[in-house]
Task: structure prediction
Amino acid sequence: MTRLLAPTLASAVLVAALVVPAAPAAPIEVDKAVLDAQSQRIATIKKVHPAIVAVCMQGGQGVGSGVIIDPEGYALTNFHVVQPTGPLMQAGLADGKLYDAVVCGIDKVGDVALIRLLPKEKGKPFPFVALGDSDKVRAGDWSLAMGNPFSLAMDFTPTVTYGLVSGVNRYQPPEGKGLLEYTDCIQIETSINPGNSGGPLFNMQGELIGINGRGSFEKRGRVNSGVGYAISINQIKNFMGHLRAGIDSDHATLGAAVGSANEDSQLPPVVVKQILDESDAFRRGIADGDQLLVFAGRDVGSTNNYKNALGIYPREWRVPLTVRRKNERKEFLVRLMGNMDKEKPPVPGGPPPKGPAPVPVPVPKGGGGENAKMYQAKPGYSNWYFNVLERDKLLTAFKKHGDFSTVPGVWVIEGAYKMPDREGALKIDVVEAKDTAKVTLKMNIETTLEPLTQNDRALQKMPLGSGGLMMAMYHYHRFLTLGEKGFEGGFAHGGNEPFYPYPADGSVPKSLASLRVDCAVILTKHGSVNCRWYFSLKDSTLLGFETYVAKDSKDADEADPCEVSFYDYKDVDGRKVPGRIEVRHSDKRYAVLTPTKWTLNK
Result:
């Protein structure tokens, strides 16, 4: 190894003589665009900063992150964050305070939970963030992640990271038993670490575009390798009605196996390979070998496209899809099946029902604050308290259209009907007393049903081809006059769901997708008959309902419902009633009814 020798005295003097003090460097000018971007970034962080949540166990031990999305204190986080806390937890905000909180709704498959923070002062609003549109996110966009990694902030001040969106529409398979499946998620290089789970991902306008949940870590599991995944906010929007209604949500399946027609081809078509006989897809006419072209508005070019499109919807939603069969395009409206088995009541003396064991939700023993009063356990629900809250809120808004509880007894509806092969005068009598009920329908031919005593399923679906119009009118009368008291089998909020009423003028729609109206849903059961009631999210108008008559007394699985849509509401004695009713069954219009006279409580 060589090294420099120490300088002599003469050379040192010479060097000193040659050294001249340097002039001060001119300040480096920073591009204005860079400074503006920095200012915007800082302003965005300042704006959303107060709404970031540190989700904690009772007592303040941190387990994850979250973000408040409305002034009432509702906040989004991950299911795997609230799983260890149980239904009651605490939540810290950047103001340094710890708030009591309670689980509202959960989505175990999609790894999302909605919790609600309780204010220190009753009625005081919480800071919250706006929801963005994750479909507009593109690879290369800048993003901000905020949360409490490694529980670094003892005062709950969130940590901020900044980085690129590195991919969109990513698919991450479930982590055991179908849970924690990330479909259509956002891939980011924005650093997230343990403790960031459940925290927000923002665009540079401060809009919430995702909830951070998974990351790729090195073997010890503590250091991010540079790839993280956020659940898209648009997927969460599909489940928001379920989450607010305290529902233990499930994701959808088509009821059919879908895959590439030819694995050897570079761009093989995606086809239906196997279909379940009990699926709605089968009932609607989809068949093995059909090429899937469009699913819920998305082009399907690969099985990955299909998985991403399917995975963002709740079970039992209806979605349009387009297939190609023998060079002909066909569009269908299909009700999706569930990812997990529904709970069925055990048969007396028989074996327990099969299916995945429910995820245990620990409940604290004794005591508890105000949040404990906001938790009610019930099978199928993450918190029944919030279901009742949302259900009653919806029914109160609906009641503004008229109070029908004061007109029980006999209803007579008169007018006209029109069917594909005939038309004429219409008369519907609905009679209901304490122990009797009777529906008489006259459309040229008079037909009668006594729903409490006539259990023959074929009769309950009369008139032939309607799917059960008389049964539907009996439930309509019961719903309006008795409400919850009329449905001993169940009366619950069903979350939000799209409804597809056909054009009021009877014209053929351009597409089934164009018919979509987002609605809040009430689910009812009386006897062996289930109904779904659709209310406009805009003004709580009852747009229609579906009546499902069970196949037989031992089988609660339904086939095609009687679908009823309401139009042209008019006022009768201070109550809104429809001036046009369309009845459909099995993808066909059964009849259009035009009531001209309503006699209520005759």
